[in-house]
Structures are given as structure tokens and as C-alpha cells.
TrEMBL record:
One cellular component (GO) term of this entry: cytoplasm
Annotated positions of the N6-(pyridoxal phosphate)lysine modification: 361
Identification of the protein by name: Decarboxylase, group II
Keyword set, alphabetical order: Decarboxylase, Lyase, Pyridoxal phosphate
Source species: Photobacterium gaetbulicola Gung47
Top-level lineage group: Bacteria
A Pfam family matched in the record: Pyridoxal_deC
């Protein structure tokens, strides 16, 4: 399937925009992303309306302040002396100038050219839902402080459980502060299960252990481990990745065996469903089966906890039941093949012990709305702190909530309300339509880049929203595949290290010189990696990327970029 997708990328027929698809997309965009007061009356509020009107001009980032009424003066006020006003301000029903200015001039994720990273404009229903949550202000720490919001949280958790194939009665979840915190829970669950004494005595006197994650993982893995007091250098094994950036299972098996053979515990195996820059999707079932097999073979008492960082990739769960044969949405052939490839892996999410869901990324919900899903609610017991620490709360009610097990005390519910509203209005089909639009854009962009002849795509078999690429000077390079293959050997050939440096510098100059036109792409230092040397060391390969999560982006922005790309 990967191969069929790669050859289709060259085929302009397979990249066409179907007219039926276009109708689905237009309707979904109008209903969920247009800030239309007729559909969502909240947008008729004068301040919100002013923000929207300004953003509708779709100005380039460097034109915006000058175009905003009194923009420069307002900016000077913000940069100037700051003190709290002595006198109270009587509301007059008019929008506040500074609030409106700061909101309108925040990064404009509605601009169709905004493709910098895994960040999006939120959808209309989720904005509305979040506002309701903000107004009600429930605190999910404790059921008495949450009221009905507690049940809304559990409802959304059951919706996600049903969608991925978790048992909704056996599983649970926690809305928390960002994907980083979700992954923190993933690590903590493993540590508390495998090294229970650490709850009281810290990491100083625990039996020998190793945490396992992937070299392709997000940097939050490292911030979390450091926070947890895990020695990143000596107690963490980062598994090698393949050329497609997913986990190398042979290396994983080797490392797990090496640990178990000497009775070294493995609290958590962290894998990734959709890496941020290259959308590598690790297979989950093979990890699950390997873990079970080795635990039996070595008689390991507490199995490693498998957490899947699906912060970006979770959105693909909306395609789990898509009828690929009938293709009711008229998704184009290359994108359909790509989604089918990804789904063959996303299906395995139910084998994870827990996973990260970032609604605020590819779920179009305002920040922050992250959910960590946990397959077996008994696992929460391992996180429980001593009940006497919770003297603020009535004893009988504590057991009904996750109070004793959460990292946070106060837990806001704005994300729950936003997520509920987005899921309710967009439904599976609404999400499928918007996500497929993004993926069709990504493939159209890949197709255009491939046509140029001087561009090497990074792992195009990973059919996600991010497109990473390197542009070469056509005067120096006529075969980009051969050139990239040389660059990948830079750890063993010093002359290729120099080649990599020179080509990267040329591309970076082209990127800088072009400015932001058509697509506001980004430069990243690690878009791919070199081959490993015999010591297992590798070098980062830099490049450019665009992430197609913006529902407003269309082919005209891509075409404009291509006219200026180098
Ligand atoms: C964004 C991201 C995170 C971190 O999530 P936040 O919500 O930004 O804290 C973790 N893992 C991956 C793969 C991500 O893309």
C-alpha cells in the first residue's frame, strides 16, 4: 500500500479535487469555520465581530500592525509602563480596545497561509462550547466542585473509548493540561506500577530500571523524564528509528531482552502515533505482543506500561470505520490510499494501555484541551496518594473522583466543553471531510514539489499533514535521491558531512530569501536523520516543513508558494 501511494504521488489525476468532495468541504467549512453569526450568534458580539473582520483581510504577518486602527499606538501602550489602574472602569457595552487589539493581532491561524506547525484555528462549535465552560467555571478536581461537568467529562471519555475500541466501562481518562501532561501520566503510570515505593521515597532507592522511548519521540518525553527524576542519560533507552522514522522493532526487542535478562524493570514503553514533523506512526500491536511474550518468557511480574503519544495522530480515529471501497466523500485516490495505510496502524490503538489525545491540535478545539485515555481504570489506583493528604475534601466523596490520583489539583473544564461541542457538531463525517481536505492539500503540495526535480521529500510514505522537504541547488545537484543518500552517510564520510552542510546552507538561504509567500513554512533542524554509524550515533538533517491542518488553506496558496519556492 505504501508503494501504491508513493507512485500515485507522481500522478496528477490521482491528486485531483473531486467535485463531490469540494461540495462536502464547502458545506463543512461554512458550518464550522466561518464565524457566521447566523449559525453561531455569539460571533455577532461587537468585539468578537471586530476581531473576525480584521482577520478576514488575510494580511501577511508583517502588514498587520500597520493595518490595524491605531495599531502602533496600542502596541506602544503594551510595551510601556504597566501598572494596575487605581480607578474602576464602568462597562459601557463597547468592546475594549486593548483586548480586541491583542486578540486580533495574536498569531492569525485563520490566515489560509498559516501552516507553520501543529497549530490550528479552533472550530466555531468548540469556541462556543469553551465559552460556556468558561462561564460555568466548574473545577474537575472534585465532583462536588464540578457538578454536571464531571459527567460531561466522562461522556466524552466514553465517546473516545468507543471510537477506538476500548471497553467504555473498564477504561477511564483525565482531561489535563496539554499533551505533555498526558505523556507525563503515561510515564507516571508505568513508574508507579513497576516501582511502587517511589511514591513515598522518590527515585533514590528503587530497583534498577530503564525507561524506553523512541528517538523519533517529541521533546516533551525528555522534559517529563527530567521532571520525574529519571536519569535521562543512564536510565533511558531511546530506540532507533527506521528511515520512515518509526520505531525499529528489532532494536526494541534487543533492548527489552537485555533489560529483562538482568532483572532490570521497564516501567514504560513510550511509542508515537504521528510524530510532530514527519508523522511516523509506530505499530502498536507488535509492541503489545512482544511485551507479553517477553514478560512470560522472563517471568516479569509487572508488565511495562505501553503509552502511545497520539497527540497529533489521534484525529485519524475518525476514519476507523470509513468505507474505503465505496469512498462516500469522494476523497482523491492518493489521499485515500494514504489514509488507508495510516488506518491499518491506528486500528491498533486499542492495544495501548494509555494514550494522548490533543483536541487543541488536529481536533480544532481551543487551548488547552488534552485528554489522557487509560484502558484499565484500575491503573489509577497505582497513582493514589495517601488519603490523609486530602483533608480538604469529604472522605466519602473522594473515592468517586480521580482526586487522589491526579497530578493537578484544580482542573479546568473549558477543554471538555470545547471537545464535546466539536464532536457533537462536526460528527465523524465533519471531521473526515476537514481532515481529508488537509491531507489532500498535503499530497497536492508533495506532488508539486516532486514535479520540480530539485526537491527531496522526507518520508512521503508517512501520509500525515506534515510535509518535510529539502530543496537543492539545481546547478549542483541533478539527482536529489542520490544526493540525499550521500548526505545520509555523513557520519561515516566526512566529505558528505561537508556536502550536507553546504546543501543545507543553500536551502536555508533560499528559504530566508523567499520570505513568507503563499505558505508560511518553517525551518526545522531535525527533519530527518543520517544513517547510524557503528556506534549507533547519528546526525540531524535540517529542512523545511509545512503542516496542513488549516481548514482554510487551499490550492491557490500552494500554487503561489510554488511560483516562488526557490
Ligand atoms: C504537540 C506534541 C506533544 C506535546 O503536546 P502539548 O499539547 O503541546 O503539550 C507531544 N507529543 C507530540 C507528538 C506532539 O506533537
Amino acid at each position: 500500500m505504501a508503494d501504491s501511494c508513493l507512485s500515485l504521488l507522481h500522478d496528477s489525476e490521482a491528486n485531483q479535487l473531486g467535485s463531490l468532495f469540494q461540495r462536502h468541504y464547502d458545506a463543512a467549512f461554512a458550518d464550522y469555520f466561518s464565524r457566521d453569526p447566523a449559525k453561531w450568534p455569539v460571533f455577532s458580539e461587537p468585539g468578537l465581530n471586530r476581531i473576525h473582520q480584521f482577520r478576514q483581510q488575510k494580511l501577511a504577518p508583517n502588514e498587520r500592525i500597520a493595518a490595524y486602527p491605531d495599531g502602533l499606538a496600542l502596541q506602544q501602550l503594551l510595551a510601556g509602563h504597566a501598572s494596575i489602574a487605581q480607578q474602576r472602569l464602568v462597562p459601557n457595552g463597547m468592546p475594549d480596545d486593548m483586548l480586541t487589539f491583542a486578540a486580533a493581532l495574536s498569531k492569525d491561524w485563520e490566515n489560509p497561509s498559516s501552516v507553520e506547525n501543529v497549530v490550528t484555528m479552533p472550530c466555531d462549535p468548540a469556541i462556543y462550547g469553551s465559552m460556556m465552560g468558561a462561564m460555568a467555571n466548574p473545577n474537575l478536581a472534585y465532583s462536588e466542585y464540578a457538578g454536571m461537568a464531571d459527567q460531561l467529562e466522562k461522556y466524552v471519555i466514553r465517546q473516545i473509548a468507543n471510537q477506538v475500541g476500548y471497553d467504555p466501562e473498564q477504561s477511564t481518562g483525565i482531561f489535563t493540561q496539554g499533551g505533555t501532561f498526558c505523556n507525563l501520566y503515561g510515564y507516571l503510570l508505568g513508574l508507579r506500577k513497576s516501582l511502587p515505593t517511589a511514591l513515598q521515597h522518590g527515585m533514590g532507592r528503587v530497583p534498577d530500571f530503564r525507561i524506553i522511548n523512541s528517538q523519533g519521540g517529541h521533546y516533551s518525553n525528555m522534559t517529563n523524564l527530567s521532571l520525574l527524576g529519571v536519569d535521562i542519560k543512564d536510565k533511558t533507552i531511546r530506540i532507533k528509528v527506521t528511515d520512515s522514522h518509526d520505531m525499529d522493532y528489532e532494536d526494541l526487542e534487543r533492548q527489552l531482552r537485555a533489560c529483562f535478562a538482568v532483572n532490570c524493570r521497564v516501567p514504560t514503553i513510550m511509542i508515537t502515533m504521528g510524530t510532530t514533523d514527519t508523522f511516523a506512526v509506530d505499530r502498536i500491536k507488535p509492541v503489545y505482543e512482544l511485551r507479553n511474550r517477553l514478560c512470560e518468557e522472563y517471568e516479569v511480574e509487572v508488565a511495562p506500561h505501553i503509552h502511545v503519544d497520539a497527540a497529533v495522530g489521534w484525529s485519524m480515529i475518525f476514519f476507523l470505520d470509513y468505507d474505503f471501497a465505496r469512498n462516500p466523500l469522494d476523497i482523491n485516490p492518493v489521499t485515500l490510499a494514504g489514509i488507508e495505510r495510516t488506518i491499518s496502524r491506528v486500528k491498533e490503538l486499542k492495544y495501548a494501555d494509555s494514550f494522548t489525545v490533543d483536541f487543541h491540535k488536529w481536533g480544532y478545539v481551543p487551548y488547552t484541551s488534552s485528554l489522557v485515555m487509560i484502558k484499565n481504570k484500575q491503573d489509577m489506583k497505582a497513582l493514589e496518594n495517601e488519603p490523609e493528604n486530602f483533608s480538604y475534601f469529604e472522605h466519602d466523596l473522594q473515592g468517586q473522583t480521580h482526586l487522589q490520583s491526579t497530578i493537578e489539583c484544580s482542573r479546568g473544564a473549558v477543554g471538555v466543553f470545547g471537545a464535546y461541542a466539536a464532536l457533537k457538531y462536526m460528527g465523524i463525517e465533519g471531521y473526515q471531510t476537514i481532515l481529508a481536505h488537509c491531507l489532500q492539500n498535503a499530497n497536492y503540495f508533495r506532488h508539486q514539489l516532486l514535479k520540480q526535480g530539485n526537491v527531496k521529500l522526507m518520508a512521503p510514505e508517512n501520509q500525515g499533514p506534515s510535509v518535510g522537504f529539502r530543496i537543492y541547488n539545481p546547478q549542483w545537484v541533478d539527482d536529489v535521491v542520490a544526493e540525499f543518500a550521500k548526505e545520509q552517510q555523513c557520519m561515516t564520510h566526512p566529505e558528505y558531512m561537508e556536502l550536507l552542510r553546504r546543501n543545507s546552507q543553500w536551502h536555508r538561504n533560499a528559504f530566508k530569501g523567499r520570505g513568507k509567500v503563499g505558505l508560511y513554512t518553517n525551518w526545522v533542524e531535525f527533519i530527518s536523520r543520517s544513517a547510524y554509524n557503528t556506534a549507533g550515533k547519528y546526525s540531524y538533517i535540517p529542512g523545511e516543513k509545512a503542516v496542513f491542518m488549516n481548514p482554510a488553506t487551499g490550492r491557490s496558496q500552494i500554487d503561489l508558494f510554488m511560483r516562488h519556492y526557490c
